[in-house]
Amino acid sequence: MKRNLVKSAAPAGLSLHIGLNAVDPKHYGGWHGDLVACEFDANDMAAIARASGIKATTLLTKAATRARILAALRNAAKRLKAGDLFFLSYSGHGGQIPDVSGDEADKQDETWCLFDGQLIDDELYLELSKFAKGVRILVLSDSCHSGTVARAAPPPSATAGRSKAMPAAITGRTYRENREFYDDLQRAAAKTAGKAIDPDAALARIAVSNRLSAVVKDFGPAVVLISGCQDNQTSSDGDHNGAFTERLLQVWNQGAFKGNHAQFHARIVAGMPPSQTPNLFTLGKAAAFLRQAPFKV
Asked: How far apart are alpha carbons 24 and 65 in whole angstroms?
């Protein structure tokens, strides 16, 4: 007698690649935020995704708006199931706004500087939390997310070249001119997510704490985040790629790299100057994902 065997669907892969060589000065207090290599970074990450069998979407500069990026994240969250892969990359400026929803009066929320406004880490954490349990998410961020950098200019020993940190004067001006907008975003995210969330965890800029551990227990997807630098450093733009992305591409070597995410990060760090040390962070039950090869569907 024949039995009908139902084959489980093979894992699927989706990716989103964001690269901004400029921002809209109408939102950023007259600042254009000109960079050179961020669109190259996004296109190169998309090429890796496609070569790995991942369906890639690229949003560059003027197309990299808050609405389009949030829509792309939500679409991926709806489509992917346990075992699937979502690859998210960002190349552009990092910024900060004062935190109005946290416990400390002087706390800052880190941001990605999108074309028409900043994406707050509260929001990114919330969007990542909407992915199904068991979805694997790899985030590569060639940007700055540093409170130290935002409050003061980088020391002379900082990475040479164009910094991807939003200047402190622009950070303050952008927030002052759009204060109600950003405060409302933070309050809405906090109300939706609940008090347990530590939003800064979304961009891996804080140490593991008891509060974060409580969040991770209820965090469904497995997330590996590799970012361009440590808290007290800056990420550097280049002529063809950002410094972090350039080194990543060297290590990847068009797929010749053999190893897991942890080894991938270690190899990238080994080739970077002491002034820019990429950071590795995980969210959720990511131990098994960390041991897998990068970009593997």
From this structure: 10
Q: Which of 17, 144, 229, 261 is catalytic?
A: 144
In 3D space, the residue among 17, 20, 18 whose CA is nearest the CA of residue 37 turns out to be: 20
Task: Output 37 or 155, whichever has higher pLDDT.
Answer: 37
Parse the chain into domains and list their residue ranges. 14-290
> 168-177 and 179-193 helices cross at what angle (nearest 10)?
80
Specify whether 38 is catalytic. Answer: no
C-alpha to C-alpha distance for 119 and 128, rounded to whole angstroms: 13
The larger pLDDT score, comparing residue 84 to residue 4, is at 84
From the candidates 93, 145, 261, 265, which is the catalytic residue?
93
| 8-50 confidence digits (pLDDT tens) | 678 999 999 999 999 999 999 999 999 999 999 999 999 999 9
Closest by CA position to 137, among listed 145, 126, 128: 128
Considering the chain, what is the average pLDDT of its residues?
Answer: 81
Q: Where are the alpha helices (H) located in the chain, listed in sequence order?
A: 38-51, 66-79, 121-129, 147-151, 168-177, 179-193, 210-217, 243-252, 261-270, 287-290
Q: What is the pTM (predicted TM-score) of this model? A: 0.84
27 is catalytic: no
- CATH code at 14-290: 3.40.50.1460
> Do 113 and 95 meet the contact criterion of CB atoms below 8 Å apart?
yes
Mean pLDDT of 49-77: 97
Q: Residue range 217-238: average pLDDT?
A: 76
DSSP character string of 145-201: --HHHHHSPPPTTSPSS-B-BPPHHHHHHHHHHTHHHHHHHHHHHHHHH-TT--GGG
Strands 13-19 and 108-114: unpaired
